[in-house]
Amino acid sequence: RQRRMFKREGDEEEVCPCDRPTDKKVLKQLDDALSTKNPTDRHQKLKALLEDRPECAECLYRTGESAYQRAKAGAGSFNTSIKYLEELKERCPEYHSELYYYLGNMYYAQDRFADASSAFRKFLDFPSDDPTKMSPDVDRETAEVERLLPCLLYTSPSPRDRTRSRMPSSA
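RE: above sequence
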């Protein structure tokens, strides 16, 4: 992969779009959004930051993560989170291990078993040489995925499955 560099007007240095942000203003806005207690307000702040900084991979990741958490809590659908995280996967496929964990869980919940299996395999095969790209819960998540993955080989959607949540209980 070629590292495409860019420089935004007012930025001090060129950055690779998949690098974590270094701009102090962006970091402050991210910190402010992530420390917001109300999930709806947090998500709105992250969306606004992403609109202002569409090249910011961390902003895209955190907005997708926020949409995932909101959908798990019943506030919205997984489609919103999938849209953000699939965009990040296309732009920066090795951004963070949880990218694939979240996608796998959402695909599974939507009975997209082949997609779930693929995402979970990428999660398990994710390079672990950079601890900042790994979840603090990676051991629990790995055990969960290793338990679930063999079941995906034998799972076929049934019409009655569409009425129940298929989200893993500990996700």
